[in-house]
Amino acid sequence: MVDQHNIASAHGGLPAPGLATQLLHRDDVDHLAHPNHPIAPTLTTSTTFRAPHPDSAAAAHMRSAVAGEVDFDFQDPPTHVYSRYSQDTNLRAEKVLSSLLRGHALTYASGLNAAYAALLFYSPSVVAIRNGYHGVHASLKLYSRGRDVKVIDLDAEYPRFAPEKQRDGGLLVWVETPLNPTGEARDLSLYSERTRAAGGSLVVDSTFAPPPLTDPFAFGADMVMHSGTKYFGGHSDVLCGVLAVKDKADWDALWHDRTYLGSTLGSLEAYLLLRSLRTLTLRVQRQSETATKLAQWLHSLSLPSKSSDTSSGDTGEQQSPPPSSSSSTSPSSISGGKVIGRTWHGSLQPRQDTDLDPLAKSEGLGFDPRQQMPGGWSPTFAFRTTKPEYARMLPHLLRYFTPATSLGGVESLMEHRIVSDPGEDARLIRVSVGLEDFEDLRADIAQGLETLLKAEQEQQRQL
Ligand code: PLP
């Protein structure tokens, strides 16, 4: 008979597991030691747990912890008390997330909830930030209520603070990368160097590029934030946020804040999150590959075509990387910059400032993000149509893309971005690429663009 314990100990001799293996096994209790161990996690929704017998060691430990005599490690509690403090499924999800993000991770009730917790944690008096998800700016306004907080531009000169100010009235630099809605990457090494020099802290909102695409800690982040609603949840059915820090003492402090903010993730959501994390690498790599092909193809549509008439569009806007060969399959009616004015994506960086459009996004010119994003580009990106009417209608003419906000799910979405973000250019469309086949998605957009143009010609004929 095979000795199960010997097999279990042999696991210790294996090489360090890869990311996909960690996602599946990091939270696994030693299943070799438990005959009949359930493969899927057991779903526990209980908010409260039977107290240990007063004479037990567990009860004595709890009494000492409440009296402040010993630490009670809520990352690995000997017993659960109440689900706002700890609960099995959430702890398992956090174990997997910690492994994935290479830090100590906590979950929150939403991405914005996590963003707010990050602000409270650092309690800055100066925040350097520009653009990105508009909701984070709204959270920052909430945080600033009743406090004397100065918001400065990300590229402004940073005021210097003494080290003791790091979590008490100092500088917080908030970098979202890749950026919502364009999917373009910002230079993390640059911002971490500048933050360090000023004695500040760097939070990176990495929602648009989960591992294995990038690791912000490797480029100097002090804290990594994710809207887990997006790629971690991955199926448009769980609202969730994540923070990760390198230091366990910071995790403890964040855990304390979360407990008394009451922003713990619900147990059903934790279950859905854990289930989705198992397939994260597969999903994200595929979504990234498809998005890159689509962005390259859309970019090719904005370039002046060799033979076609280019007078109807603002062409010649973008000259960076070469278009993919898929451009040759596009009907000439939709190429040559007639409908697509410009496409933004990490794969189109570094770019030069050849865009003369007054609403052009001109961040990070010349930055090459290849080193920062070794696992691939963001599966979400944006493009600009030549007329606002095209951007308004296109998402509603498609079969496989659904007109909706959010991103990161297995189904592709396309959004006229101004609908969610009133500050956005009315010609901008954000694309979240799901798991459909590339050729189907490309054909869907192509037919949508052709339909737009035909409808416009029809209208003109009737005038
Ligand atoms: N950060 C980014 C970059 C986002 O795109 C979003 C949501 O779209 C958030 C934060 C907020 O996350 P949630 O909607 O989960 O609160």
From TrEMBL:
Extent of Low complexity compositional bias: 304-316, 325-335
GO CC terms in record: cytoplasm
Listed GO MF terms: carbon-sulfur lyase activity; pyridoxal phosphate binding
InterPro entries assigned to the protein according to its UniProt record, in alphabetical order: Cys/Met-Metab_PyrdxlP-dep_enz, Cys_met_metab_PP, PyrdxlP-dep_Trfase, PyrdxlP-dep_Trfase_major, PyrdxlP-dep_Trfase_small
Origin superkingdom: Eukaryota
Cofactor(s) listed: pyridoxal 5'-phosphate
Protein name per the record: Cystathionine gamma-synthase
Family: Belongs to the trans-sulfuration enzymes family.
Claim: Cell membrane is one of the keywords in the record: no
Region Disordered, residue ranges: 304-376
Species in which this protein is naturally found: Pseudozyma flocculosa PF-1
Modification sites for N6-(pyridoxal phosphate)lysine: 230
GO biological process: transsulfuration
Annotated keywords: Pyridoxal phosphate
